[in-house]
Amino acid sequence: MAELVSLQEAVAAVVKDGDSVALEGFTHLIPFAAGHELLRQGRRELELIRMTPDLLYDQMIGVGAARKLVFSYGGNPGVGSLHRFRDAIEHGWPGPLEVEEHSHAGMANRYVAGASKLPFMVMRGYSGTDLVAHTNVRQIACPFTGELLTAVPALNPDVAIVHAQEADRDGNVQLWGIPGVQKEAVLAADRSLVTVERIVERLEPRPGGVVIPGWVIDYVAHAPGGSQPSYALGITERDNDFYREWDVISRDREQFQVWMQAHVLGGEGA
Amino acid sequence: MSAVAPDSGYTTGELQTIVAARSLAGKRSCFIGVGRPSTAALLARIVHNPKLVLVYESGTIGAKPHRVPLSIGDGELAQTADLVVSVPEMFNYWIGPGQVQVAFLGAAQVDRHANLNSTVIGDYDHPRTRLPGAGGAPEIATGCAEVVVIAPHGRRTFVERLDFMTTRGERTTLVITDLGVLEPRDGELTLTTLHPGVTVEQVQEATGWDLRVADQIAVSPQPSERELAALRELVNR
């Protein structure tokens, strides 16, 4: 059963140096507050897993918290490049970054295999592209038809961290809007933390609501506004202006460091 | 991209968006990314095809945004969608089996077979430019029946040899640029349409291989007043 604790306690309890960590949320509900807390606690050598690294992993890579990145789309959506991500891969700054990349379909199916506790999932894809030679997939023959398919290995992160709109006092969680791969990530991981906008007495069913029961979650922490500059549908708005500003802030190493110190590492939240 | 076509009163970028929107007349559904493809698909819903189903890879199917979204996961997409699904469901139930008819894709590099690179410029292990990567493109391009590539026409983009093959081009039906339209003929992209005022030589000059040219070349109709007014109203919302 999920324990309701502070964000600081929860992050300290679930993440250790060297862990593989998936902070998921597909454009929506990105767990920025938890990621920032993890940086304030000085976690290092992490294997960061996310379909879309987004600004959060750009920040985590830029401060040198990551050893490896597993991903499928490393851009600033609608704006352009993730400059810290590019600097790490193109110039090894602030340190070398190992990369394993997939397609979105591949990453999604890797989470499905992980949540299913199966060794792999099968799909059509990858074949005929240069991705095959640069990532971890295998060709497999369908045992019924002989069709050649692609096997993608299960993702079972040490830790999954996701953000949701609400939880009740037993740690049952409900999120709605774009559901991404959050349920799969929580079920695939060894340990999990869900941060929420609000704690409620009872979860009221919502159209399209995804409920994750408290008994598959380790910790729930109250973190209002915890997905900003991403958003929690119905509660906060995506800060599109900040996504554009990040393009400027993150372009220069020193400016990035000053911003991180002032808004993340030195204080509470961004 | 925003150069004004000579003696026209519209930009080449506007024309490219308008031509892309026209390609969605009569189509059932379209998968779209952000930027110009999204603007074109919204314009198609206004001018040509109000019932066009817009699908964004974030999981929003049948989204009806009033404004052009910045990201593929803006809140308005989820709020206006017919249904919102998880990423695994999007790719396994909707994209992979071909439930979505048309896809709009962009890329940093396009070759003569409409294969696309959105991964790296230069060597993979020591890239000159690290691009965002595959995203949904590889499976979208093999799942959807028709793929429309929207790209700026220049030698940096239209290359003899891709630095990395991210996405296969065999389902591409149209490549819409700011100079004209290419279509596959026997598997090779062929210039079939010029935008008004553009010459074959200009297109050849902006293409990194010896470009095939169709025997009969069409010219894109000038943007109508209605198209231009609707586009400008849309981007100013």
Descriptive report:
The complex is a heterodimer of chains A (270) and B (237). With 270 residues, chain A is of the alpha/beta class. Helix content of chain A is 29%, strand content 26%. Chain A contains eight helices and 15 strands. In chain A, strands 1, 2, 3, 4, 7, 11, 12, 13, 14 and 15 form a ten-stranded mixed beta sheet that branches. A three-stranded antiparallel beta sheet of chain A has the order 8-10-9, covered by helices on one side. Chain A is globular and about 55 Å long. With 237 residues, chain B is of the alpha/beta class. Chain B has one domain (12-178, 224-235): Glutaconate Coenzyme A-transferase (3-Layer(aba) Sandwich), CATH 3.40.1080. Chain B contains seven helices and 14 strands. Chain B has a ten-stranded mixed beta sheet with strand order 4-3-2-1-5-10-11-12-13-14, sandwiched between helices. Chain B has a two-stranded antiparallel sheet with strand order 6-7. In chain B, a hairpin with a 4-residue loop joins strand 8 and strand 9 (127-130). At the A-B interface, helix 4, helix 5 and helix 7 of A face helix 3, strand 4, helix 4, strand 9 and helix 5 of B.
CATH superfamily of chain A: Glutaconate Coenzyme A-transferase
CATH fold assignment of chain A: Glutaconate Coenzyme A-transferase
* Average pLDDT for all residues of chain A: 97
Whole-number mean pLDDT of chain B: 95
CATH architecture level-2 label of chain A: 3-Layer(aba) Sandwich
Oligomeric status of the shown chains? Answer: heterodimer
Helix content of chain B: 25-40%
State the major sheet of chain A: 10 strands, mixed
Rounded to an integer, what's the Rg of chain A over CA atoms? 18 Å
Broad CATH class of chain B: Alpha Beta
Shape of chain A: globular
Q: Give the N-to-C terminal Cα separation of chain B.
A: 21 Å
Largest sheet of chain B: 10 strands, mixed
Q: Give the CATH architecture of chain B.
A: 3-Layer(aba) Sandwich
Count of discrete structural domains of chain B: 1
Largest interface: A-B, 53 and 49 residues
